[in-house]
Amino acid sequence: MMVLQMVLLLCNIYAELKKLKNMDERIQKLEETLAKVLSENEALKSIVQDSQNKLKSVRKENEAKKVAFSAGLLESGTGHTGPINTPKTLVYKKVFSNIGGAYDPNTGVFTAPVKGAYYLRFYGHSHGGPNMAVSLLKNGKTQCSVFAWKPTSNGNASNGVVLTLETGDQISTQLWQNTWVFDDPASYTSFGGFLIFPL
Amino acid sequence: MMVLQMVLLLCNIYAELKKLKNMDERIQKLEETLAKVLSENEALKSIVQDSQNKLKSVRKENEAKKVAFSAGLLESGTGHTGPINTPKTLVYKKVFSNIGGAYDPNTGVFTAPVKGAYYLRFYGHSHGGPNMAVSLLKNGKTQCSVFAWKPTSNGNASNGVVLTLETGDQISTQLWQNTWVFDDPASYTSFGGFLIFPL
Amino acid sequence: MMVLQMVLLLCNIYAELKKLKNMDERIQKLEETLAKVLSENEALKSIVQDSQNKLKSVRKENEAKKVAFSAGLLESGTGHTGPINTPKTLVYKKVFSNIGGAYDPNTGVFTAPVKGAYYLRFYGHSHGGPNMAVSLLKNGKTQCSVFAWKPTSNGNASNGVVLTLETGDQISTQLWQNTWVFDDPASYTSFGGFLIFPL
């Protein structure tokens, strides 16, 4: 009787053990698949990291682009600036916009906050009589100018330029000696510019 | 005899069972590794989600940037506009470009489609005689102007400005009362602008 | 005695085998989780691939934007250009910037390197006497112009335009017949432009 029970028990055990081989195969499959997943994930993590860095740089560049300003000569009132017998940096007081804060309304100087291509323009208006002449200067050196010789009525002239500026380069406009410009609340005489793209 | 067979059988079974410990260890290893993979993937999914959102916003911003227009005063023909005894919004009919459709050639008004920094410029040309004066207006308020007092030959003057506009802000140019401008197919008198960057 | 030992042994074996059910469950759990990981990773890889492509296109577009130039008429010296009895393409020799190399200082022609919205401007300055007239041309066709009829002192006039250009479109400025412009090292007469955004 006891022996018979043992035989039955052994048969059960034997049946159970057959599962072992199948489980071993399943574990091996899992191990292989998981190794593949780990390896693929390393590649994926590296791609994601690379994309993150590139995206960060794109976003940084897009933010860095936000440099633009524009100002009229007189904040209020009406009047001539010049003529005097020395060249004079024009200090535009009526700030229309100054995104990035690179234009200083106390000095009339725009300082490039990042290296890039900038568009810069200015406009001069004067009453008839004396000459009207203004140059745009980069670090004190004339880039482009306007000139109206003894206009019979108003002098009206504007110029603009695309310049590659290094960080810290300074742009200003200068009234020539013995010339004048005029401004009033309608804002004729103006200076402005913006970063087109960083470099 | 039977007992001997059973002993051998038991020995086999016993040998098989030794694999159980090894399999248990492999399963445990798999469980640990997979838990790590799951946790890493959650982090990865979160990074990818974040990158996707940032990229979406960069792409949206880049698309939103596509706002630019430019128009000449007369679509065809030759003639003066003004002088009349009230200020008059100039309606530029010869559309050179109007990407984003923010300029309305029926009203002469540019309506900012997104908040941002915009560059806006205009150019006025007139024959000699009456004054020539044009202002650029934001929501009806003068920003900057040109003025040529009784020019002996042509009046020629342009101005431009960088403005921060809110969505819906309206930009137009206005001819002053008792002043005039001239245009013909060569297109002298013009208005234009573009979004420099959204804010 | 031996039979009793064997029964005990079998009972131990049987107890061990009970673990098999637990291991089978753990393997099944692993298989299910790993299948989920594999499926999620496929989705993730596809998202990452898509983001990569979009990012690549954003970066390419941002790079493609880097087109800007500006030039003054005379590289050195002082003098009039014109008047002559045929229209003449102005060749600006004093290159302030030429990012992307799309402006040719030998011909005065800017060739759009990519399809996009471009801002283009020019400025003409002349001495009194003959007319001063310059047009901006796209593929030889006048877009906008300046004109100063027999100015008593200086002719000063600038114009600008936003144009949608196809790759290869050519922009130049043309002095009208029997008119002149003037330039010297202060650079009054100028031409410039930049890509606002690709299309």
Automatic annotation (TrEMBL), chains A, B, C:
<feature type="domain" description="C1q">
    <location>
        <begin position="62"/>
        <end position="199"/>
    </location>
</feature>
<dbReference type="GO" id="GO:0005576">
    <property type="term" value="C:extracellular region"/>
</dbReference>
<feature type="signal peptide">
    <location>
        <begin position="1"/>
        <end position="17"/>
    </location>
</feature>
<dbReference type="InterPro" id="IPR001073">
    <property type="entry name" value="C1q_dom"/>
</dbReference>
<dbReference type="Pfam" id="PF00386">
    <property type="entry name" value="C1q"/>
</dbReference>
<dbReference type="InterPro" id="IPR050822">
    <property type="entry name" value="Cerebellin_Synaptic_Org"/>
</dbReference>
<keyword id="KW-0964">Secreted</keyword>
<keyword id="KW-0732">Signal</keyword>
<feature type="coiled-coil region">
    <location>
        <begin position="13"/>
        <end position="68"/>
    </location>
</feature>
<keyword id="KW-0175">Coiled coil</keyword>
<dbReference type="InterPro" id="IPR008983">
    <property type="entry name" value="Tumour_necrosis_fac-like_dom"/>
</dbReference>
<protein>
    <submittedName>
        <fullName>Cerebellin 5</fullName>
    </submittedName>
</protein>
